[in-house]
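Researcher: Hi, I'm a grad student and pretty new to this. My advisor asked me to get structures for two proteins we've been looking at. I'm not sure of the right format, so I'll just paste the first sequence and hope you can take it from there.
Model: That works fine. Here's the first sequence with its structure tokens right after it:
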Amino acid sequence: MINSIVTGTGRCGTTYLAKLLTSMSYPCGHESIFNYEDENAIKNRLLKSDYTLSICSQSTLNIRYDPNKKDWIKLDEIIADSSYMAAPYLNWKELEKIKIIHVYRNPLDVIRSFLNDIKYFSQKTPNNSNIFNELGYENKIYNILPELSEIDNSLERACYYYIEWNKMIKNNCTNKEVLTIKIEDKEKDKKIIDFLGISCVENKFFNNTKENTFFTRKSKIKIQDIPNGKIKNDFIDLLCEKKYAIKY
């Protein structure tokens, strides 16, 4: 059984933290347990320690089609999993004593990445022609949050997802040991080390917080771009709660 879980909204640093922890001799898989599959498959994998390797666990995305790529983690060494798909299951009794790291990233960057880079939330139903949804990740999001299909504007859909996914994590972590961190926090390494009780602090190979974020040169999304209404107000409240210094 794993010792801890890293989770967030996706596009927020879960791949980075999996690699960072592994580099600190705390082997953390990426979506090794929690992925696009249904609840029964995920629980079976958890209970049997039947871990798997996501594409991100096998290499950086820059070389994921390289036939000579090498895995950066071994299945039999995994003691943690990092995945935004863990969020719906954090209240399972099997995870009662698991430590949780809830990672945030600038919400506007997360939304930009979802909309512009991997093209999620572009339609009122999941975009099955999207290569990044070929395994069913966006389908699963819509299954968990079916009200997304009732929102007309793609930017509002992305904002709603961001709000509700973080809220779900918080609600499912009642009475758990939780460390909430920003990926932009320069002190995050020390906070994680202290929280998990890691004795080895050497970062052997990795220190790229933008790993797997697909940064494009497209224009940034601004608060002013979000249609006025409850979703925008709730989104701004979350910005203030997490103390992101964003002008609007």
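Researcher: Oh nice, that was easy. Here's the second one.
Model: And its structure:
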Amino acid sequence: MTDNSRNNELWRKILTGELSEVARRKVLFKRIPSSSRCKICLAPFHGPGGQFVRLALHISPSKINPHFCNGCYNVMTANPGNAEIEMTLLFADIRGSTTLAQQLGTTEFSRLINRFYVAATHVFSHSNAWIERLVGDQVIGLYLPSMAGNEHARVAVQAAHDLLRAVGYGGSGEPWLSLGVGVHTGVTFMGTVGTDSGMRDLTVLGDSVNTTARLSSVAAGGEILISEVACAHAGIDVSELEARTLQLKGRAEPIDVRVTRVDTPQVVN
């Protein structure tokens, strides 16, 4: 097996939760008391155990998501590779951000964006998402089997509702930000890009990524557009949900979606 093949298999096992090394670390780390720990390998973050793994093993919360450790993340960056796995993606876009920036001015708009990033990070972290991107007027969360579990679609849909609530939808007043959300489940390429001698980065690619991005871009403020595929994976009863068939830019075939909002009853259990 070539180095590339070995790395790709390593990536697949990490992203799907099948890596035996992680399983062995779980057996060890779960014996160490801690109030919070890595969702993948159970490395402790706080207390004497957390201090020990920081000093002895150089393990600490990852910058990608404070619910996961840099050890699990570093295994992938040290072994450049990729895998195609089924996951659920959540994209959220601010509606009318260009006009908003002109109205508020640079300083106030940057404060608003930072408030949005803080809210999104909180939702993504507590729903065990891989925080793929916080940039401009968009945030992206990836719901992987190894992190969000086999019910990653259901978790992502719930997170979409939580994100809308976090910016004020469903409250007594108007939301402090107009936000549209797209959720889709599909096989996605995830891996490193770059050269051996240059800078590498982690990215996701493929039709599922493009589809989710397009869904979020056409969702009105306060809407969550969920693909029929994601609905099926999440076990959502769609009988009472608004149905739309969309012709998304760049797609040859239309896509069927369901529309939910924070006041849509019993979308996820």
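Researcher: Is there anything I should tell my advisor about the second?
Model: You could mention this: The CA atoms of residues 128 and 148 lie 5 Å apart.
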